[in-house]
Amino acid sequence: MPHDFTSVANCALSHALKTAKIVDADVYLLHVVSKEKAIREAEEKLGQIAEEHKGEGVTILPAVRVGNIFEDIGDFAAEHHAQLIFMGTHGAHGWQHVTGSHALKVVTHSSVPFVIVQEKEVKDTGYDDIVVPLDFNKETKQKLVLVANMATYFNSRVHVVIPDETDEFLRNKVLGNIQFAKKFFSERDIELTITLAPSSGFDKEVVKYAVKNDADLIAIMNLQKNSFLGILGANYEQYMITNDAQIPVLMVNPIESAYGQSVLFS
């Protein structure tokens, strides 16, 4: 996980450590610097953080890299065969200004899924309730593999929220995704609820539902690159990852075929 020595990065680290402990994984702690002369100071700071969490039963591997966060976070994760990247996002103050739009740019460059964290600490039990918006986009089903694997590890309840479409064509597409989700989670013995929400302002309805059900994670696709009107897609994703309830967001980039088996989430 990238760490910029801020409180929100510490919060993201607590999420990463909780997950790593549950799935028996190591945590790479990455800091990206723009110049070589900054390497030593960054190494010392990362070393201190690793030492502070020494007794938590997770191996922390500090790493400093010269480059920029928009490319090197995703590249580092791919090179080290990471299965998830935990990253904090905050306002306009801090390391390279990792605001919502910048966090989205980091995510879009990466082939590895992200958990974007604000300042909501992870519970002792991890992610008990995961909210999954499921619309008519065919790519939206890809995230279900990762959601199901996380739900299995954490014994989570999955809450699928779907837009109440009035257009018959869109409604049929949504209904098809509902049937897919029911079968998919049923086969894996994962507790599932399905709720209709107004299609107008669907993103806000999803967050409202997540707050009402005390959700620990919202799982979305990053459809920004695929959106016909890119700015609409960007607004949706940015709204979700910087939601006022500060609920962490699992974000998956769409790929040509769904995510396959992995060492961590198999």
Automatic annotation (TrEMBL):
UspA domain: residues covered: 2-117
PANTHER family per UniProt: STRESS RESPONSE PROTEIN NHAX, UNIVERSAL STRESS PROTEIN UP12
Protein name: UspA domain-containing protein
Gene3D superfamilies documented for this protein: 3.40.50.12370
Stated family: Belongs to the universal stress protein A family.
Protein's organism: Wandonia haliotis
